[in-house]
Amino acid sequence: MSSNCKQSSSNGNLCSSLKQKKAWESLHRTADGRKWKRVVVFLWLVVALCGLVCALTSSNGGNSERKVETSVSSEFKTQVSLEYCNVSKEEFHALDSLFIESDRVASLACCRESGYEMPSSCTSTCRLKMKGSEKWHKLVAENVEFNAHCPSRDESISTYVGLPLSKNKTMSFISQLAFSSISSGHLWYKENELQMTELHNHATYNCESISFCLAKICLWILAGMVASFNILKLHEKFSSQKHEIIQETPRAQQSQLLQQSQSSSRSTGKWRKKILVVFVLAGVVFSFWLFWYLDKDIILRRKETLGSMCDERARMLQDQFNVSMNHVHALALLVSTFHHGKQPSAIDQKTFEDYTERTAFERPLTSGVAYALRVRHSERKEFEQQQGWAIKKMETEDQTLAQDCNLENFSTSPVQEEYAPVIFSQKTVSHIVSIDMMSGKEDRENILRARASGKGVLTSPFKLLKSNHLGVVLTFAVYNTHLPLDAIPEQRINATVGYLGASYDVPSLVAKLLHQLASKQTIVVNVYDTTNKLAPINMYGTDEADTGLPHISNLDFGDPTRKHEMQCRFKQKPPPPWQAITASVGVLVITLLLGHIFHAAINRIAKVERGYREMMELKHRAEAADVAKSQFLATVSHEIRTPMNGVLGMLQMLMDTNLDAMQLDYAQTAHANGKDLISLINKVLDQAKIESGRLELEAVPFDLRAVLDKVLSLFSRESQEQGLELAVYVSDQVPEVVIGDQERFGQIITNLVGNSIKFTQDKGHIFVSVHLANEVMLPLDARDEVLRQSLNIVQVGSNASYNTLSGFRVVDRWRSWENFKKFSGIPEETEKIKLLVTVEDTGAGIPPEAQCRIFTPFMQADSSTSRKYGGTGIGLSISKRLVELMGGEIGFVSELNIGSTFSFTVTFTKAEANYLDTMQQQCDLAVPEFRGLKALVIDERRVRAEVTRYHLKRLGISVDITSSMESAYSYVSCYGKTSVSEHLAMVLVDQDSWGKDICFPFHNLLKMIERNGSKSNSGIPLKIFLLATCISSTQRKELKLDRLVDNVITKPLRISALAFTFQEATGFGKMGHNTRAKPSTLRTLLKDKQILVVDDNAVNRRVAEGALKKYGAVVTCVEGGKVAVGLLKPPHKFDACFMDLQMPGMDGFEATRQIRSLESECNKKIDSGEASVDMSENFAHWHTPILAMTADVIQATNEECMKWPSQLRHLAATSDFPLATQLCHDLSESNPCSFHVELRLGDFRSAMGDIMINSTAIKQEYLPTSCLSLFSGHMYCAVPLRSEPYT
Amino acid sequence: MEIVGQLQKQYVDFINSLFREGYLDDQYVQLQKLQDDSNPEFVVEVVSIFFEDSEKLLNDLASSIQQQVVDFKKVDGYVHQFKGSSSSVGAQRVKNACVAFRNFCEEKNLDGCSRFLNLVKQEFYLVKNKLETLLRLEQQILQAGGTVPLIE
């Protein structure tokens, strides 16, 4: 209880402290929950401990009680056995002395004659006795000292031995006598022992029941614990589930779900409270039940204890009485044997008196015995004469032996049929000698019954005069002859010679008996004679206050006509059932405590839930605000972009006009700034798009290397200006064509390279390398050379240069991808390939404290960065998202003033074979003539040489590498001597290796070889190129003037630039492409061109017509797609078609498709010669440029666009407007197209449509530019056609 | 000449107010620019096509909205057309109303559609009036022997 109190107080403390912290804790729900859980666990532990301690102590108590009881019983046993031993010993003594006194021979003879009493199975009795004593012995040996009994046996044996006439019969007789006492004692003891075991059992049962109860309680508590934990867990799970659900559901459903969760949580709260109430009620009921159960149990136990005690007492009383009765019986037999059986009588008053006096201890309950002779009236005179006194009559009828001993008071008995005058009496009752027992009414009845039955009979209780106690008289008849066992009463009456009577003092008998027993104080014993059921006579005990129900035990004193019973009751009223009270109060307290705890917990949960809901609401609001912000940003960006494109277009136009230098400069600046702005806006839009998850990647086959070249070309000018080496390397193992989103891939690399350029100033390099992710895992020597070099950065040479691209130190690139989780997750066999792209620079590096937030949008390394370098800090964040979208990871390593290396992985699909073919074809278009050539690269840096080799390899040129001019010299001289089949066509020398001293002899050598070679070989002259990172125009001029080199190739190396330079130097590819016309003004361009305008909107149609006519075009307008298809069926006169996309009936997409299919049919015919050439006029190939117009770019259009050839879609969907123009510019430079030739813009050759513009653009400023691009082959994306969901 | 000057001033004021109040936008200027000697009636032509076309469209719209089961796709198509033509002539307020109208079409909000139909109608007639006035002014200027001033 005290621990409970403590617990509750501590709980209270906790509660109060919790209340104080409420506000703070509502913010820390999880921590709080954990705390509560801990408190609950603690409480449970305490409760469980209490229960355990209780159980232990109670079981201990039970044990000790049991021990006490057993010790008591053993003590008692000892006492009893001792007593009995003594009794039997003394009995023997008495008998012995008696026999010594009397005539032994005669008595022994008599004994032989009157053997009728002895059963024939004497020996068996003996054996029985022995057995019994043995048993006794065994039993006693456990607890009692052996010598308590043993001496007596020895003594008795010695007594037997001491008898001069030790005949079997005597022995057996005596032993029978002894046995009667012993066996009765033994029997009693046995029963007593039985009782003891019973008691013991009961005690153990009690113990068991208590411990069982406790175990039950413990179980209950345990179950409660488990249940409560489950509830807690369930709740947690439920709430977490809710949490998850809420997190997962889209925003639109969130509010609804929130409400649902609110209501559900409210309902669970109610449900929880109900459970709590039920639990508390159940606890209260259980505690009451426990009280009732334990109380009942206690009462029952009390009753049982009382019953057992009472029975024990009754049995003892009965046994003692029976023992006395047996003695009296024995006395009767003695008288019969020695008085009547002998002539003359062996007993006179003196002998009787002596004997009875000496054996009085045997009958401790009798106040006296007397023998009355049966005297018939005929014998009276003779008898009176013989005795010398007259037979007297009892004065009052109801008086008995114990009357006042004044003989003079008795008058002579009147004449009767027969008399029973007392002849012998014990000394204590010697006054009744000569009184006729037949004269008393009770005695007479007694006598009559006794002689008829042959058994001892009892009178009803009456007051004994002397002691004033209640007493009974026991009477035995003495028969003269040997009566058969089944003698009828008549025979018995006739054989009667006298009567032996003994008076019993019942109260003293009972008192003595009770005195012997322990715990006599606790119970009250009453003995009743219930022969007359209606009026029981109280023989012993007082009527005390009623203390509960008495226990009644029947007593059998051997007289069937008389009934006696013993009533026992406790002296004290039962004490209050403390055990039950404690247990139930304990349970009640625990229940209430638990109830309190759970109530508090439920309140807390409710509070926390409320807080959680508020938080959720706030979160939603914040999210909504965030979304609104991004939407605003996106919308604004989008709105800015549209006019901005116009501005740019106009600027472009402006720059094409005749401007003076100043004006051109202004226009260029404006254009450049506008481009920056557009790219920023596109980035913002990208970010918004990625954030809203609307960015979809496409899967298009593309040439990875070409993409890298494009990226490089973007930065070539910048890198040249800054004097940085910019290089790209792609491992041989990376396939030519992969399927993926090339724009996004390019965007990532552009971002990274752009960053690197921004932060790398005036020294070093930027190196982009692409490998398969699996390559990194290969053993060192199996790796590709570049990878091997870059992974083992060592210092080479004395001048602190490293084996990197530029010789500057770089960071260890391993570290940039060591955190990648699924690095080589994709096995080689699958469709997917994983690329590892690394962008390495020797820039300023990222400060360590800024490295953690480098990928956060709008977060730059430090705020001064944007001031110093510009930029918004959005690029890396977009890159990261894109990389993640492409199933890769991005990482970096950076050290201040050494540089940074960014690595990322992307997953692409392997391209199918036919794609590879078409792409290959395109790739090879420019460079078929270099196949099979051989080149020598002289470069002291291995990595750089490898990069050069990579580019040359792409052109089909095989490469040898030497590290210095000297080794090259020897190489070339060797080469000159051996005429190998491969033709050395060119020598590429890096700027760093170039030295004037060595180059002259080298040059001469080469010239010599060239001369020799030109004779023997294909006539391709040997050329020398210088590879330079940055070279001033004067230097370049100087070099050219020296004619030491044929040309200077400025890095970064690009395949197109290389091919062009080679072509220029060798004179290859000069044919054909010199008809390149400078794009003229729009008027000349459109003049007299047949243009078909397809639009369903009359107004639009008219406006377009007007716009085009203004530039001199001949415009035909049609309303629908079907008509347009009819008109554009080859052969036709139209030079171009402007097509609206959204039209009723046949829309622009369908019309375009149909037109293209018609064209291809026609082309086939031309190819096969079916169609006449003049039908197709001058066209070798039908491909009418179709310009798609659309007013609003809605999702549907975009989806439809997806079905268009991907290349067009690319351009249309690209957000990177400058990239697109640059790209187009590059391509158109190498492949200039004329107006009549179909658009041969690399990627766009199979395009169905050619360009898409915003239809409002046609009426506005875009038209000129778009038309220009359309007809000049300059690809110009007037309005990036992207589905913007923000409008 | 004074009349011409007055008319020209009136014209400039009027057209500027139209721009200021958002009835017209830059597109109208573009249209004017497209008009030259080879195509002297271009603006009038386009605008009258616009009027005809729009009235027809508005009728169609009204009838399709009054249908028992409204085909919102159809309505959307009409509005799209209307939007296209109005943006072609530079009737900015009509165009904006159309954009909002289309949102209701997407939502299939009949109430909003009817409300916006009225709005679009209202805007259309407003701009029609204004344009007619404007063209009348132009005609007057031309009749008076002046030239229509170009608005930059």
TrEMBL record, chain A:
One of its GO terms (cellular component) is endoplasmic reticulum membrane. Its EC number is 2.7.13.3. Residues 343-567 form the CHASE domain. The chain crosses the membrane at residues 39-57, 209-232, 275-294. Keywords: Kinase, Membrane, Phosphoprotein, Transferase, Transmembrane, Transmembrane helix. SUPFAM superfamilies: ATPase domain of HSP90 chaperone/DNA topoisomerase II/histidine kinase, CheY-like, Homodimeric domain of signal transducing histidine kinase. The modification 4-aspartylphosphate is found at residues 990, 1140. InterPro entries: 2C_system_His_kinase, CHASE_dom, CHASE_sf, CheY-like_superfamily, HATPase_C_sf, HATPase_dom, His_kinase_dom, HisK_dim/P_dom. This is histidine kinase. It comes from Forsythia ovata.
TrEMBL record, chain B:
It comes from the Eukaryota. GO terms for cellular component: cytosol; nucleus. GO terms for molecular function: histidine phosphotransfer kinase activity; protein histidine kinase binding. Functions as a two-component phosphorelay mediators between cytokinin sensor histidine kinases and response regulators (B-type ARRs). Plays an important role in propagating cytokinin signal transduction. GO terms for biological process: cytokinin-activated signaling pathway; phosphorelay signal transduction system. InterPro entries: AHP1-5/YPD1, HPT_dom_sf, Sig_transdc_His_kin_Hpt_dom. Residues 39-134 form the HPt domain. Histidine-containing phosphotransfer domain (HPt) contains an active histidine that mediates the phosphotransfer. The modification Phosphohistidine is found at residue 80. This is Histidine-containing phosphotransfer protein. SUPFAM superfamilies: Histidine-containing phosphotransfer domain, HPT domain. It is found in: Cytoplasm, Cytosol; Nucleus. Keywords: Cytokinin signaling pathway, Cytoplasm, Nucleus, Phosphoprotein, Two-component regulatory system.
